[in-house]
Amino acid sequence: MQNVSVRGPEVPRNIEALDPVFTVSDLSVFYGAYEAVRGVDLTIGNREITAMIGPSGCGKSTVLRCFNRMNDLIPGARPAGKIFFHDEDLYGDHVDPIEVRRRIGMVFQKPNPFPKSIYDNIAYGPKVNGMKGKMDSIVEEALIKAALWDEVKDKLKQNALSLSGGQQQRLCIARAIAVKPEVILMDEPCSALDPIATTKIEDLMQELARDYTIVIVTHNMQQAARVSDRTAFFTAEVDDAGERHGRLVEFDETSRIFTNPSDKRTEDYITGRFG
Amino acid sequence: MSVLSTPRSAVRLASKGTPLREHVFRIALLSSLVIALGFLLMLLIYVLEEGWPRIDATLWENMPSIRRPETAGIQSGIIGTLWIIGLTALMALPTGVLAAIYLEEYADRTKWYNRVIELNISNLAAVPSIVYGILGLGIIARWLDFGFTVMTGAITISLLVLPIVIISAREAIRAVPPSIREGSLALGATQWQTIYRQVLPSAVPGIATGSILALSRAIGEAAPFLMLGAATLVRFNPEGVWSSFTVLPLQIYSFISQSREEFHILASAAIVVLLAILLLMNSVAIWLRNRYQKRW
Amino acid sequence: MAAQDQATAPGTSRSLARSRPRYGESVIKVVLMAAAMISVATTIGIVAALLEPTIEFFSEISFGEFFGSTTWGPLFNPAHFGVWPIIVATLEITLIAVVVAVPLGLAAAIYLSEYATPRVRKIFKPVLEVLAGVPTVVFGFFALAFVTPLLRDWFPFLDLEAKNALAAGLLVGVMIVPIVASLSEDSMAAVPNGLREGSYALGASKMLTSVRVVVPAAFSGIVAAVILAISRAIGETMIVAIAGGFKAVFTFNPTNEMSTMAAFIAQAGSGDASVGSIAYKTIFAVGSLLFIMTFVMNWFSARLVQKYREVYD
After folding, report:
1. What is the residue-wise DSSP string for chain A?
2. Which residues of C are less than 8 Å from B256 in CB distance?
3. Residue ranges of the alpha helices (H) in B136-260?
4. What is the mean pLDDT of chain A?
5. Which end of chain C has fewer beta carbons closer than 10 Å to its terminal beta carbon, N or C?
């Protein structure tokens, strides 16, 4: 665990001058009366990769799904506290969740291409968003950015379900890119993939971080260490009433989290003594 | 069952052979199924044999007649059935699919009125068809004053099959995995875009299967039409939706009610035609279902 | 509240507010809901169609006469309104049907769910569906023209009338076999495999596992299936009208011709009663009774189905 390579200081980025895309303050998420996540404060830096790690049930995916308001789709889910996207309250009255999702893309745990052609998978987002421009070039650009173009350029009319799992996941990334989002949220994007496909996605993330802000939820600590600039460590705590709540324990530069965490619980988790 | 297989090494665990009662039980189960389906087979053979002499061109060409059963036909019944089924498809299928979309994709199940709608649909699916006939008679024919017309019959039958269409369309929509919806919504598609462009195309084979089965139920219905004045031997084809009419099953009923042997032969021949239509529809439905089953 | 981070957004920076109006979405929702409400309107329509003539009926004929006497003949002169003969006939034919359908349907369900290979299932289930799709007028004809003569040949001592409750009940039974079989099989299929494996692990045979584990676990679903099948049998019209006849006699002997509630409605509704007459109103009074009986049973069955769904979901 100690010898994982950490995205080091050679990355030419001024990590101190954090330019926040999301500012989360005192966020709690309720499902009905149950408080799944309690009191999270977090900032997501522009064109950084932020990883959210922690044991299962710690609420990291729940927090991620607040960023593009996918939680709205779960009956009874309700956030308290504030999330600002730049300086706009993400849950403000005037905000349209559909507009939010157009600006903030998402990639899911299990690759979920539509049962259509590769081309139509990419073209779907731009079409429903009423984007102008030549569709062929939009599709090509998205596939190139997702490092999938060379593999599929001769079979764009083929059904996307004929691709391998890793290719399907990159197709889902390409699909998200095609609507020109500012942020890409990734919910354990590699957990259903083999190691080779995982490496490809990780490389792709590094590549994409030049243009996009990326937030990734992962079970895999090495992955967080390898790809992210900052890491948020979540855990589940049992309160006096015996209910489990997800809490943010520590949020820092990834190198710090993995070499010199300030919280004992973080240290236990990354050294494998817990979870 | 691999659990029951005999391990080769352990001689003492060797099977003593399946006990007799296991065999008897299994055979009893299988014969129950065979008996039930045997009725179907006997029925088919009987009507084919009885009706065979009358399965000819006159059956289609001629109108029903009380006086000449030897040459009487069933044309008005077939045309009437086509009218009713065509109109039912136009009315019940879109309505049923729209209602199914509402219940699966929009309805918040914590709201009492949505639960009332759901409970109501499952109850309607089991209301006897003769009661739908009373609905047609009391409300559509008399209160709305549509009379004993094709329109009254079609609306009545549409209401009768609507719950079946809704229930089967809901199942087809539910079979589309949630990940497809999430994927679409995460791209900034609206809910309706997601439904129209992703969910419905994936659900079409299932909806089509259910719709065909619902319509085949409508084709075989006779009881509601008894209440709607379609019982007599109608000797003309309907000219429009406000025309009076008969349907094939009811024509069969009126043949059966006659005591002369020729009418029973005629009824058998008409039944063969009716069953042939239904078997064809059933086969299409089953083929559709097998062809498009589970792509995820 | 507009977003002003010109520098950061790679695309255009714009507010998260709705960029274009989407009235369509709300219009669609209203249309969809209206479609769903048609089913509610149908129920209201049925109740409305039944209610007024039923009330009028009972203002002329007392409850006491309707439920308290055993001579039925609303279409005769003098008319009689003792409903018991047609209730008894309905229940008797339903009973015969259940005696036929429950063992056959249940056995078929156990076979399909526990014994049949996927290939066998793939052949039998569509055939069962075809049986379910046979029009009841066809079953009625078969009962009248084939089964009754056959029973007369085989059992001459029964003295079967040309139209009789026995043949009608038998075929109503065949008609509801697919309902019992397919709904029971659904609930058996919902029994988790762990239960079966647990039973096998204890050394139980397949028969024992089916009878002692699977059937009890699926019991509420099976009961729901049977209730639904019973309510179908109660409301069945064509078979009983064709093979059971229209003669309302207060008797328990199934070799006799007897008229069920549904058969009476069919007989009176197909033109023998003029609008507004007491005979016409009787159709609706009997219709109300039939509707209430099936409604109660359906409701009960739906509750049971809901219950077993909750257990294993």
Report:
1. -TT-----TTS---SSS--EEEEEEEEEEEETTEEEEEEEEEEEETT-EEEEE-STTSSHHHHHHHHTTGGGGSTTEEEEEEEEETTEETT-TTB-HHHHHHHEEEE-SS----SSBHHHHHHHHHHHTT--S-HHHHHHHHHHHTT-HHHHTT-TTSBGGGS-HHHHHHHHHHHHHHT--SEEEEESTTTTS-HHHHHHHHHHHHHHTTTSEEEEE-S-HHHHHHH-SEEEEEEEEE-TTS-EEEEEEEEEEHHHHHHS-SSHHHHHHHTTS--
2. 137, 140-141, 144-145, 242
3. 150-174, 178-186, 191-194, 200-220, 223-227, 248-257
4. 88
5. C
Distance CA C202, CA C213 (A): 12
Question: What does the pLDDT look like over C203-220, one tens digit per residue?
Answer: 888 899 999 999 999 988
The answer to whether residues C270 and B253 touch, using CB atoms and an 8 Å cutoff, is no
Closest CA of chain B from C92, distance in Å: 18
Q: What is the pLDDT of residues B263-293, one digit of tens each?
A: 999 999 999 999 999 999 999 998 888 887 6
**Count of CA atoms in the C-beta half-sphere (13 A) of A170:** 27
Contacts of C9 in chain A (CB under 8 A): 86, 182
Contacts of C41 (CB under 8 A, 6+ apart): none
Q: What angle do CA B171, B174, B175 make, to 5 degrees?
A: 90
Query: Which domains does chain C carry?
Result: 87-277+293-308 (1.10.3720.10)
For the cut 70, the answer to whether the pLDDT of residue B173 exceeds it is: yes
Q: Bridge-partner residues for A82, per DSSP?
A: A25
**B272 at interface of C, judged by CB pairs closer than 8 A:** no
CA pseudo-torsion sign C184, C189, C194, C199: positive
Task: Band the pLDDT of C153: cuts 50, 70, 90.
Answer: very high
- Bridge partner residues of A42 (DSSP): A24
What are C78's two structure tokens?
A: 């003098």
Its sign, for the CA torsion B200, B201, B207, B208, is positive
Domains, chain A: 20-270 (3.40.50.300)
Which pLDDT does position A3 carry in this prediction? 43
Residues of C in contact with A180 (CB under 8 A): 10-11
To the nearest whole Å, the CA of C16 is away from the closest chain B CA by 12
Q: Judge whether C214 and C195 are in contact, CB under 8 Å.
A: yes
**Least Cα separation, residue B240 to chain C (angstroms):** 23
Q: Given an 8 Å threshold on Cβ–Cβ distance, is B37 in contact with C275?
A: no
Examine the pLDDT at C7 and tell me if it is beyond 70: no
Residue with tokens 């960023």: A67
pLDDT category at B232 given cuts 50, 70, 90 is low
